Amino acid sequence: MEYINNKKNQFHISEDNATGVLLEVLKRTGRNSDFLTEDTENKKDDKPEKTVPDYYTVNILLILAMLVIVISTPILLFMLPSGPVIDPDRELAAKAMANRENYDTTVLPKGLRDNTPMCLRPFAGGKDIHKNDLAIVDATNASDGYLVIRYIGDSGKVKLRITGPDEIVYTYNLATGGGKDEVFPLQAGDGTYLVCVYENLAATQYVTAFSEKIDVTLNDKFLPFLYPNQYVDFNEGNQAIAYSEYLAYTANDDLEVVSNIYNALISSLTYDYEEAETVQSGYIPDVDEVLTTGKGICLDYAVLMTAMLRSQKIPTRMEVGYAGTAYHAWISTYITDIGWVNGMIHFDGKEWSLMDPTFASTTDNEKLASFIGDGKNYQTKYIY
Q1: Is there a single domain that holds both residue 30 and residue 151?
Q2: Within this chain, do residues 192 and 336 fall inside the same structural domain, yes or no?
């Protein structure tokens, strides 16, 4: 027994002491104490049991958790930004590029080079015609590096194939529904070209609608890379041409024009990943759409830059092929006293790096230089 000094100064007995005293009293009076010892032992063994959820409870909890995730996912996706984040400086540059009012040269120093646009106009001369009831091929100006072709049949799907003296086969889609004059380059130079038109029968089956061999002797080997054509379509009314005139204003030579246009585009355009996932076969870029929206895929980049450079009298090839394992598009240009240049990103004193406006706008310089190297990672398949 112990004394605990509390507010009431009462005696208190611990539970163990009280049990011992009670047992002693019961024994002295001859009464049964078994009930007390059994209860004490039970209390010693009375430990809380650990409960484990059964199999069905666990499954139910998992199902409920999955339902919560499924229900909340659309909300989370709505909250997350879609697509790559556009750099603020690039966005501002794209807006400036799209606004014609910004093409003000009054405060700029004039370069030594004439920046007046020269947009050559292809046309059907009507003097050298090859035709049947389904197609018309006008070769009047073949010496200037192009053919004008029109499909006049009633098929809903038509293909054109042109095979040059280099034996590379170029395949195009032809306009249907009455057709229209379309321009196609003779990029393989002098020699005989086989021109074939095919009408679609069903699925991937085609039948020959027209076939003709045409001999070509070019007036100038650069002409196919100065004229517009089906893929690289432009004219003096395009905003893209006005922008190239503005960018070329301060240039002293062609090399500076290429540099100005190249740097302006790679710092303004943003790669369009959505378009890349949905683009259809036969897609042909609109140069003004690419310019004013400030976005596009590799073909958009290459076609826009090609059109702008051609309008500045700089022969430019829009090339399609493989960059590593990826199907890609890029450009090369001809510079007087240098020749065809497949690289304009920088010059290390010995060679140029491959000029690729898409990679340059989406890749840092160190990675780009590592990939591009001497151009061996690029394999040209077609030239337009």
Answers
A1: no
A2: no
Token couple for 129: 């015609």
Burial 216-237 (b: 16+ CB within 10 A, else e): bebeeebbbbbbbbbbbbbeee
As a whole number of angstroms, the distance between CA 134 and CA 155 comes to 9
Residue 302 forms part of a structural domain:
yes
| Predicted pLDDT of residue 121 | 96
Q: In 3D, which of 333, 325, 309 has the Cα closest to residue 383?
A: 333
Give yes or no: residues 272 and 373 share one domain.
Answer: yes
**Domain of residue 306, CATH code:** 3.10.620
Task: Give the confidence band of 175 by pLDDT, cuts at 50, 70, 90.
Answer: very high
The structural domain count of the chain equals: 3
- Within a domain: 260: yes
Average pLDDT score, the chain: 80
Answer yes or no: do 189 and 45 share one domain.
no
Within this chain, do residues 39 and 71 fall inside the same structural domain, yes or no? yes
Residues 263, 146, single domain; the answer is no
215 with 251, same domain?
A: no
| Residue 65 zone, left/alpha/beta (φ > 0; ψ -120 to 50; rest) | alpha
pTM for the model stands at 0.73
Cβ atoms of 270 and 295 within 8 Å: the answer is yes
Dmax over CA atoms of the chain, in Å, equals: 142
Given its phi and psi angles, is residue 383 left (phi above 0), alpha (psi -120 to 50 degrees) or beta? Answer: beta
CA-wise closest residue to 227 among 118, 153, 134, 154: 118
Q: Are residues 73 and 111 in the same domain?
A: no
Domain region containing 351: 88-116+233-383
Tell me if residue 91 falls in helix, strand or coil. helix
State pLDDT tens for residues 75-131: 443 343 445 566 788 889 999 999 999 999 999 999 999 999 999 999 999 999 999
Residues 328/358, Cβ–Cβ less than 8 Å? yes
Among 141-155, 234-248, 330-344, the least confident range: 330-344
Judge whether residue 187 has pLDDT over 80.
yes
pLDDT score, position 129: 98
Is 136 part of any domain?
yes
From CA 9, how far away is CA 95, in angstroms rounded?
89
Distances from the Cα of 201 to the Cαs of 135, 154, 357, in angstroms?
Answer: 17, 12, 40
Spacing of C-alpha 186 from chain mean position:
29
| Residue 61, in any domain of the structure | yes
